């Protein structure tokens, strides 16, 4: 019986320390504080990928825009359905996801990326060398 409780405690500790980033996340505009999109992150073969599944657009804005600034095969692709997070891998020592990239569909820029959970929110850091910007994404239940 004692062994059973030790095993349960160990499993619960591992689960709470290694929070998964999979699921739906609401992105927030840095300048206005308004919701911009919903990104769904999924795991495939040990790597994590995220695609835009919904945009929050103003009435006068294009409701189903294309990425005019995106590089390569993503140029002129519809933003809804576009994969913007690619090839992320979980690093158990750092308790974060890294080694992948994130695409900003507004500018078309691609950045190295790190993701981690902090206080139930997803921290998303895009960076080039030592310059970076970190956003906070919120869980999305809609």
Name its key features:
mainly beta, Lipocalin, 11% helix, eight-stranded antiparallel β-barrel, 142 residues, globular, disordered N terminus, 8 strands
Characterization of this structure:
The structure is a single chain. The chain is mainly beta and 142 residues long. The protein has a single domain (20-139), classed as Lipocalin (Beta Barrel). Helix content is 11%, strand content 48%. It contains 1 helix and 8 strands. An 8-stranded antiparallel beta barrel has the order 1-2-3-4-5-6-7-8. Strand 7 and strand 8 (131-139) form a beta hairpin. The longest helix has 16 residues, at 2-17. The model is unreliable at 1-17 (pLDDT under 50).
Mind sketching the topology for me?
Elements: H1 2-17, E1 23-28, E2 35-44, E3 47-55, E4 83-91, E5 96-103, E6 110-118, E7 121-128, E8 131-139
* Beta-strand segment tally: 8
What is the name of the CATH class?
Answer: Mainly Beta
Shape: globular
Tally of individual helices: 1
Work out the helicity level. Answer: 10-25%
Q: SS-based structural class? A: mainly beta
Concise synopsis of the structure shown:
The chain has 142 residues and is mainly beta. It has one helix and eight strands.
């Amino acid at each position: 019986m004692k062994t059973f409780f030790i095993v349960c405690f160990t499993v619960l500790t591992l689960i709470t320390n290694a929070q998964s980033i999979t699921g739906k996340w609401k992105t927030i505009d840095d300048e206005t504080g308004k919701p911009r999109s919903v990104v769904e992150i999924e795991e495939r073969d040990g790597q994590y990928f995220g695609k835009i599944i919904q945009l929050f657009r103003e009435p006068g804005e294009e409701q189903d825009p294309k990425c005019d600034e995106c590089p390569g095969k993503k140029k002129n692709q519809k933003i809804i359905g576009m994969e913007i997070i690619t090839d992320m891998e979980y690093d158990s020592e750092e308790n974060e996801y890294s080694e992948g990239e994130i695409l900003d569909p507004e500018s078309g820029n691609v950045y190295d990326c790190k993701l981690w959970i902090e206080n139930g929110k997803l921290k998303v850091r895009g960076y080039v060398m030592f310059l970076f910007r970190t956003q906070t994404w919120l869980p999305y239940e809609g």
